[in-house]
Amino acid sequence: MPAKADKPFIPRYQPALFWFGLASLVWITFLLYAGGFTTTIRAGMAFLDWPLSNGSINPEGWLQDKDMAAEHSHRLLGMVMGLLSIGLCVLAHATKAAPLVRKMGNWLVVLVITQGLLGGLRVKLDALNLDIDHNLYAQTFAVAHATLAQLFLCLLVAFVISTSRSWIERNAGFASTPASSLATFGYLACGATVLQLIVGAIMRHAHAGLAIPTFPLTPHETLIPPVFNFAIGIHFAHRVGAVVVTLAIVAYCIRVWREPSSRKALGKSAASLLGLLFLQALLGALVIWKVRNEHVTTLHMLNGAFTLALCWSMTYRSLKPKLDATPVATAPCSDSAGKSSPFGQTAKA
Length: 349
Known about the structure:
Distance between the termini: 24 Å
Low-confidence stretches: 325-349
Number of strands: 2
Strand order of the largest sheet: 1-2
């Protein structure tokens, strides 16, 4: 007898999974701000031990001391983020979500554990604990910790989008398959933004935020500093990176608006992305003009994360039509509203 054909997996919208993921996305905003604020005020070593703080989960006087409050709240928020990630993974498997969603749930747990370990190594390998005359080890793990936070955010964004009704039942808003160049422009914009965030993390942890103390020109009234050292070099690289990111994002938005299908699906998001880009430039200038005000500096970091998250969400959504296994020319299937979807809902298990 011929073998039975595998029944195609048809994903269903699970409201509990989507809203749980969305709540986790809101939570990570507070976590990112707390982490950025801790770095801004240089409070990362308010406690010399890890994972406990002064040997306790509720150290004495931590709410009364600014540095201790920043660092310990960051640790507590991170701990809750770990529990949320485990919850998302368990719920994705329990609700029999799409295979891709379940895999992303697994990776959320892996990344959040790795993120916690990187944060711990940043503390354990600090010069204050090792009694050495440099802090290269701690700064390296601090930059890795900051970078992985952005990648974790992008994974969480993809998880939430993949569990949304728009993704499952409305093909992420696309009426037809966009040209492959749309995703290419998105990848380039996201890649440029990630590199800029890495350079920014290096600059922040090297305490080079005011290495060039004036903006847009240097104190010598030139665009390019006449003298370079590491601090000036990494700061100048961050300014150059801002120009590159601006060009990449503007080019991506233009590409979105050129095609009717992508304009309808992503046009409003593209306008929001340009708004975040403008705000990021303004905050970057204010960091210099306000002499690295702690809240402005932290908001600059947080808005950079928002910019990456939105850019990646647009890029990921543009991949939806290509992830459908059924070609457009075949018989369409109906969504929950009774309308025909131009793409099939079969997905590889």
